[in-house]
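quick one
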Amino acid sequence: MATHIKFWGVRGSIPSPGAGTVRYGGNTACIEVRRGHDLIILDAGTGLRQLGRSLLKEFKRGPLNLSLLLSHTHWDHIQGLPFFAPIYESRCRLRILGCEGARKSLVAALTGQMESTYFPVPFSRLPSNIEIEELEDFTFSIGHVLVSAHRANHPGVTVGYRLFSPDGIVCFIPDTEPRPGGADREMIDFVRDADVLILDSQYDRAEYKKHTGWGHGCVDDSVALALKAGVKKLVLFHHDPDHDDRTIDAFVKHARALVKKRKGQLKVEAAREGMVIELGGKPAR
Ligand SMILES: [Zn+2]
Ligand SMILES: [Zn+2]
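structure w/ zinc ion:
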């Protein structure tokens, strides 16, 4: 048994297709975490469309039981949902968890984007079985995976998730602005000892100075936070739509140099569409 993490959308704010983003990809936030029959989706950005196609291909017949954890309801985290093919199948059961918190309920936010002004098929006509639940307990389980949620520093109500599977710990905080130097005691505790930390690293330091207070972080603070928390692998996430592949390459290089300077063991990569990380599952000798 192993836990697989697959990246289907890595971009923040708005999809950004084009020649400059081919390698890392232009779809917005969506990650699949799978362990055996437990299939958890993190955020429903436009990357969700391809995940849906892939799931239908894999599960040709028979039930499809999925859980979707939403960090928040900004467009780049929900817009893939109407294009997620499994919701048009009666054999699909989808449990959606998250908090909306700004003005509407989570139900209103998700069904609202399928009203006739925006989309041809109303949510009420979907044949699948969809349950939408506001997070009440910040700790719960999905199959064999224990999940906890934590408030992020981002406009509206936004959370990050910590997934504890028998193979390791994955933390997903797609949109947050860490304190300068990563000095955020509660967030450090939340991501402590994670095998994989997928973290908002939208800006470099100079860009961050111009966007302080917008709710997104810079690479330097992400690295600092990950080092303070004893994380094993940091995955830079929520790439800026204006950043091309070479800019993201430079972010990775810069992050690795920071780790080296501080004599850390932290591994750093940038999230890329199609990238898979495997936890556990070492073959028996
Ligand atoms: Zn976002
Ligand atoms: Zn956001």
